[in-house]
Amino acid sequence: MKDFILDYERPARIGLGEAIFCAGKTPAQIDAIIADAERRSSLLLTRLAPEVFATLETSHLLDYDPLSRTAFLGPVGTPDKASLEIGIVTAGTSDLSVAREAARTLQFNRSPFTLIADVGVAGLWRLLSRVEDLKRMKVIIAVAGMDAALPTVLGGLVPGCIIAVPTSVGYGVAEGGHAALNAILSSCSPGILTVNIDNGYGAACAALRISHIAT
Amino acid sequence: MKDFILDYERPARIGLGEAIFCAGKTPAQIDAIIADAERRSSLLLTRLAPEVFATLETSHLLDYDPLSRTAFLGPVGTPDKASLEIGIVTAGTSDLSVAREAARTLQFNRSPFTLIADVGVAGLWRLLSRVEDLKRMKVIIAVAGMDAALPTVLGGLVPGCIIAVPTSVGYGVAEGGHAALNAILSSCSPGILTVNIDNGYGAACAALRISHIAT
Amino acid sequence: MKDFILDYERPARIGLGEAIFCAGKTPAQIDAIIADAERRSSLLLTRLAPEVFATLETSHLLDYDPLSRTAFLGPVGTPDKASLEIGIVTAGTSDLSVAREAARTLQFNRSPFTLIADVGVAGLWRLLSRVEDLKRMKVIIAVAGMDAALPTVLGGLVPGCIIAVPTSVGYGVAEGGHAALNAILSSCSPGILTVNIDNGYGAACAALRISHIAT
Amino acid sequence: MKDFILDYERPARIGLGEAIFCAGKTPAQIDAIIADAERRSSLLLTRLAPEVFATLETSHLLDYDPLSRTAFLGPVGTPDKASLEIGIVTAGTSDLSVAREAARTLQFNRSPFTLIADVGVAGLWRLLSRVEDLKRMKVIIAVAGMDAALPTVLGGLVPGCIIAVPTSVGYGVAEGGHAALNAILSSCSPGILTVNIDNGYGAACAALRISHIAT
Amino acid sequence: MKDFILDYERPARIGLGEAIFCAGKTPAQIDAIIADAERRSSLLLTRLAPEVFATLETSHLLDYDPLSRTAFLGPVGTPDKASLEIGIVTAGTSDLSVAREAARTLQFNRSPFTLIADVGVAGLWRLLSRVEDLKRMKVIIAVAGMDAALPTVLGGLVPGCIIAVPTSVGYGVAEGGHAALNAILSSCSPGILTVNIDNGYGAACAALRISHIAT
Amino acid sequence: MKDFILDYERPARIGLGEAIFCAGKTPAQIDAIIADAERRSSLLLTRLAPEVFATLETSHLLDYDPLSRTAFLGPVGTPDKASLEIGIVTAGTSDLSVAREAARTLQFNRSPFTLIADVGVAGLWRLLSRVEDLKRMKVIIAVAGMDAALPTVLGGLVPGCIIAVPTSVGYGVAEGGHAALNAILSSCSPGILTVNIDNGYGAACAALRISHIAT
Amino acid sequence: MKDFILDYERPARIGLGEAIFCAGKTPAQIDAIIADAERRSSLLLTRLAPEVFATLETSHLLDYDPLSRTAFLGPVGTPDKASLEIGIVTAGTSDLSVAREAARTLQFNRSPFTLIADVGVAGLWRLLSRVEDLKRMKVIIAVAGMDAALPTVLGGLVPGCIIAVPTSVGYGVAEGGHAALNAILSSCSPGILTVNIDNGYGAACAALRISHIAT
Amino acid sequence: MKDFILDYERPARIGLGEAIFCAGKTPAQIDAIIADAERRSSLLLTRLAPEVFATLETSHLLDYDPLSRTAFLGPVGTPDKASLEIGIVTAGTSDLSVAREAARTLQFNRSPFTLIADVGVAGLWRLLSRVEDLKRMKVIIAVAGMDAALPTVLGGLVPGCIIAVPTSVGYGVAEGGHAALNAILSSCSPGILTVNIDNGYGAACAALRISHIAT
For chain C, which end, N or C, has fewer CB atoms within 10 Å of the first or last residue's CB respectively? Predict the structure, then answer.
């Protein structure tokens, strides 16, 4: 009996490609999943640590990115120009690995996107210089750790849908990203949405669900 | 000098009507805000407890709903039929006060909506009997407390954007809604979004931001 | 004086074979326990990490399984066909190491069991396709991490006794399994039981206690 | 549209009578539920606070017990002698309200039970004097707050299935029952099961699920 | 023997007038303290709840402010113009009771101050319109609840010393002010200082310690 | 069947008089306990809130102290001069209710004691002026809330046995006494012992156990 | 300037030999401390990890025990027969490293002791067979992890002073020892004392303080 | 597009040199930042772990200190004698790495400072022997872990501004520094300020902001 059941009908049912969360799976389990999927479907792999990737027998089949710890199985098409362009902004440079997980998920699902890095509000001029660009974006994934003040400021400046992603960057009370998550959930700006800490994949999936409404 | 600064430009800037969070404000402060706003703007008041409402000098100016603890100042128009219809579902009857805060926020902003109550997945047949309706909804606010399993099941069944609202219904480890919030943030379904515990207002504002994209 | 006291009367007293929790014990202590038990009793060893197993002087005496980190000392009989068959289900592939700890504990105690993997409710069709099988099971060990919604849905569908095991699979607020545990404890389904996070051994012992009632 | 959906098929599906969790519901909602159920089904109401009970229009239809905050709607039959007798033990007198919630749930479902109060292990002789009785019980609901050491000691003495219920009795680190819950989950005795803090109802439902296996 | 020891030498030792924290003291204890101090010293009383104030026998000796729950015993001089002027800013109107505790503490110690209310960064224009004023302030007490993003933005805009006071305004994860406190401690702006949640008194004392350096 | 079992043999077994923890018990249960004990034993009642005391039918039998919420049933003898004198010190006036629970427990068990109030180390001179007295005390119960720095300083100054009692005095992060408890547990002074938050009764019982060794 | 100040007067002041907590110190700092103390005093070193010990230049001067991670600098005398004999009991074998830290601290301070291992109450017969021995002990250090039920049971059986040491043995909710600590603090047995998790050193110091009273 | 935006105007705007928090950044990102800054500005790098420093291509450009994990890029001037001298005190030797992060930040910004190590209040004489020195210091950074009682005692003895830095030294409930942080926030001494756990950099920046007021 197999240890897993892949959901090949998921794109038809909810519009998102099948993805595998690799943390907690053994290399043998991941190899078996890839073997199952190889001929039937493309696949997004997330949380695939470099040291696990290195031990996979199927690693040659994958397009792997170590910063975001994601891999693509199978061909990934070009962005669909008819789709909404999704904005991704980060508060700091340390948030980029999470932002890139979101970006890779969008790429896998053929959604166009723009990434703007390091515009945290401790240096407010960096954000204010980009406000006009941000006002034009309909969906913005805002990636921020530590005090995660960026989504709140952004939420008061732009009318688009904001999906905040808290990151686990930081130490002391910021360690693990709980301070960032709670700050976002407590935001004084109306209508800020969020996902789990470091969940760039989930933020991108939500952006895709919204993009599908508008297109 | 005034104790408050109302944001009359907010609708123009981000498309959401001005709202006042009343918890933590004295009746005198709320009365002063209402007096300031009365001739210039309509206003949504949230977290206005019945016992505070009863002591307001300006209570006669308000359209008050005790279940959701919300009030409208000024006329509220009819739903804008060109807008997306927002779905609101609740896992249980106890989640209705939060669902109604969302509904009142949508009503204040002239958004159409449909509310489906008590379809929690501990009695799965209740949800399955409504799946076809839910598949047609582009944005669903899913209100659930305790283990908050509803958004996860829903997220695997329908393609729309799901905004989950954890509620503080429950006792023991469920008290305060943290178990529900954490379950939602940990959801195995891709692309589930969330807001703070009991934050029906915030979920509705997010739904409005999304609705504005699509219309 | 010895550092440990083995409980050779436990099977007679409570019907469960003696087991040793190896985490926190030095290899020398484990070796001494095995030497003490070798001629008098069979023994189940749990939480025996591969790197500790590799350093044991008595490792050649053990039947070791690295995925579940369990070992058997002494012969283990065939399943007792007169016993209840215990069901084990997992929400995901990552939950298999915990499920296997339960399965090995059942095997050690000669209880028959069936394991069904990867039927989490984010893809509800996977569970629904097995409902008839599950309705026939009298005792089900349901292993689930992250939001752990599986036991709740199961609890509304089947009449059997459900022992949920939260797992530490996940990240962010799911890290360590506390979100899963709290979701299970807050379940809206009546009569869901639980044990500590990742405690496949304990769930199996409870299933055996129940099995002894019925047989 | 109704605010609630009663599950009249639940007894057929999972063998447990329909029950309503009243905390978080308004008196009007509870009255409406009772009116809906009155002619079709008996009903168990839990967490019905005395001050809410006093304001119900339908209170005359209920058999109410203030200590356990439970009520019965409709006739409740005599215990079914063919069923297993369930044991209920409490560590202290303060745990009796929770024990009684369990007892009333068993009574509502026609299960026989025996309650033994105040046998906590800080005075071990109290428990030891009852060990022979307890060894004969197949299912024991063990209700304990504070350090909740009772289930651990019991688990080493008797072969039956033990469902521990942590209670919120206590102050300081014991407040809210989390210390009791965590002690139970960490129990050194093999196969101790648990439910949410103060969840006498859930423990009884689990006992009924087990009782149905054996009969 | 007396239940208390007043510290009449404190002004000489550390430059701050004696203050009494009234929460947790009985009215009789507070009355005895006031009787002891009456002829020898002026006194600041903090956390003196209106319902306790109303039962004091010595209430006629006090200058009481209910919003901040503070009282003065004895004459309070006019501000010392040679001192630094301390700025107090609040993110919202609900933060005013804490801001006022700070202001009353400054007044009691004869420090000049300016209070600017409701300039939270969810409506950034409110803060930006006051930036020039804030740049001139050498010490700023920044009072903010919920996500407490104000101190971070302020810290990047102005060179003065910023003492952030998290407030317990909010609900869900913001309840009790822990999200605000943690956001402040995690601030990306360099050199933001903080005190306990709602501790307007402590923030003012710290501002006075700094003011004493500069004058 | 009775709801309680009194432990009349406890003094003989462990040297401490029987005591009843009243929180969580109904007045009827407390009355029944008192009726049971009245002719056979004296009794200490703790956590007996004034509003519960006022409703007892047996209140006329009790020697009640509202500050410590304790009562004596039956005659209490004079202090036993052959026993060690126990020292009780408090950091602040607000800690007196807990200190008095300890004092009343000592009095009930006929142990001599001395209480020194309000010597917290934020005003170090208060403690230093009493150091010689404290050096002579063999057992000191040190009651302190908030940052609870007193036991640490004391532990470095005196050779006696120090039993620290954290109190729930305080707000923000100090609320509930957890900061005080954790500070005590983390003390840099060697050999500081502790009990639960606000547990003056437990500290006194421990002091009695130690006193019995020395006498 | 030196990085440390040794307290050579401590034995005279509080009766305990100087000890160094090595965790968080660099090898160079530890070497410098040992060099400073070498000629003037004996020294106890705690939390000296094997991998740090291995890098010390002064390791040849030390009597090192890897299980307890303690070392002695300088000669340690034989036990002082006039002192109280301290009992040390452990609930399990995994608690031995902590018990040994206590034992080594007693040895360093020349106190006699007896260690009884693996008498946890999940197998109650193990404890009951030793009760008469334990009743004779005046001070007992009870080391227990997981649910830490041993001190509670012991406290009801014996009259001596009980110092419970929670250990960090365990996983899930038991991880880090917080469940054990909280269970001990919540103990239903009167007069159980405790110290920080895994703090065998502190428990021994407290036992020494008590021993000094009695001798 | 670059992954980072350096803030070369920060010294002019808020008076503090640009600093880079290296934790969470890849070596490639840090190298790119250094390359960008090399010709335009000096730079402080914090949280630069030795193993990351060792892999930098630009490491030869840096003045690196492993104890504090800080590096300077570019020339650092001599202390500005016109500035306030900042005091740094530590409770223990283990707090020195954090104290040194503060010292290096002061050095980078050309502020004079004095460091006094190991004066924790468990050996009070160490602090008392330095009180006169400490009374003369206008700003004191007090670094303390575990129970962090030092800032409280200091705050009652000296009139200067005290910035307490909790450290993550410790184990059990002290682990991670939360007990120290909460003790500081709960301090009974008036006007103690704090920053995040281990945040020597932030404490120094705050001291610099204050120093700029006075000079």
Answer: N
Please tell me whether residues B68 and B109 are part of one structural domain.
no
Query: What's the pTM value of the predicted model, to 2 decimals?
Result: 0.97
Q: Are strands A86-90 and A139-144 parallel, antiparallel or unpaired?
A: parallel
CATH of residue D107: 3.40.50.1970
Same domain, F67 and F92: no
- D-G CB pairs within 8 A amount to 117
Q: Does C181 touch chain G (CB under 8 A)?
A: yes
Residues G177 and G95 in one domain: yes
F180 touches chain H (CB under 8 A): yes
Angle at D144 between CA D139 and CA D149, to 5 degrees: 95
Nearest CA in chain D to F169: D172
For A75-82, which contacts have Cβ atoms below 8 Å and span 24 or more sequence positions?
A75/A42, A76/A42, A76/A107, A76/A108, A76/A110, A77/A110, A78/A110, A79/A107, A79/A110, A79/A111, A79/A112, A79/A113, A80/A110, A80/A111, A80/A112, A81/A112, A82/A215
Structure confidence by residue, pLDDT tens digits, H35-81: 999 888 899 999 999 999 999 999 999 999 999 999 999 999 899 99
- Chain C positions touching A1 (Cβ under 8 A) are 115-117
**At residue G56, what are phi and psi to the nearest 5 degrees?**
-75, 140
Whether residue G81 lies inside any domain: the answer is no
Min Cα distance A193 → chain C (Å) is 16
For residue B169, give the nearest of B155, B181, B157, B184 by alpha carbon: B181
D63 and D132 housed in the same domain? no
> Which chain D residue has its CA at the smallest distance from B146's CA?
D196
CA distance B200 to chain E (A): 12
Whether the CB of D194 is below 8 Å from some CB of chain B: the reply is no
Q: Give the single-character DSSP code of H57.
A: T
Q: How many CB pairs under 8 A join E and F?
A: 56
Beta carbons of B197 and E173 less than 8 Å apart: yes
Single residue among F39, F73, F107 that ends a domain in this structure: F73
Range of the domain at A196: 86-214
Residues of F in contact with D115 (CB under 8 A): 1
What span, in angstroms and rounded, lies between the C-alpha atoms of E36 and E28? 12
Assess if residue C80 is contained within a domain.
Answer: no
- Is residue B3 in some structural domain? no
Q: Give the number of domains in chain C.
A: 2
Q: How far is G161 from chain D (nearest CA, A)?
A: 15
Alpha-carbon gap, residue C196 to G173, rounded angstroms = 7
Chain E CB contacts of B1 below 8 Å = 115-117
Question: Do A204 and A131 share a structural domain?
Answer: yes
Is there a single domain that holds both residue F110 and residue F55? no
**Which of G29, G50, G73 is the last residue before a domain boundary?**
G73
Question: How confident is the model over E112-154, as pLDDT tens digits?
Answer: 999 999 999 999 999 999 999 999 999 999 999 999 999 999 9
Q: What is the mean pLDDT of residues G198-205?
A: 98
Please indicate, yes or no, whether residues D124 and D21 belong to a single structural domain of this protein.
Answer: no
In this structure, the answer to whether residues G90 and G64 fall within a common structural domain is: no
User: What is the strand order of the sheet B43-46 is part of?
Assistant: B19-21, B43-46, B70-73, B62-65
Minimal Cβ distance to D205: which of C163, C185, C190? C190
Q: H168 to chain A: nearest residue by CA?
A: A172
- In order along its 215 residues, chain H shows pLDDT tens digits of 688 888 888 888 999 999 999 999 999 999 999 999 988 889 999 999 999 999 999 999 999 999 999 999 999 989 999 899 999 999 999 999 999 999 999 999 999 999 999 999 999 999 999 999 999 999 999 999 999 999 999 999 999 999 999 999 999 999 999 999 999 999 999 999 999 999 999 999 999 999 999 77
Q: Does B94 reside within a domain? A: yes
C185 touches chain B (CB under 8 A): yes
CB-based touch C/H (3+ pairs, under 8 A): no
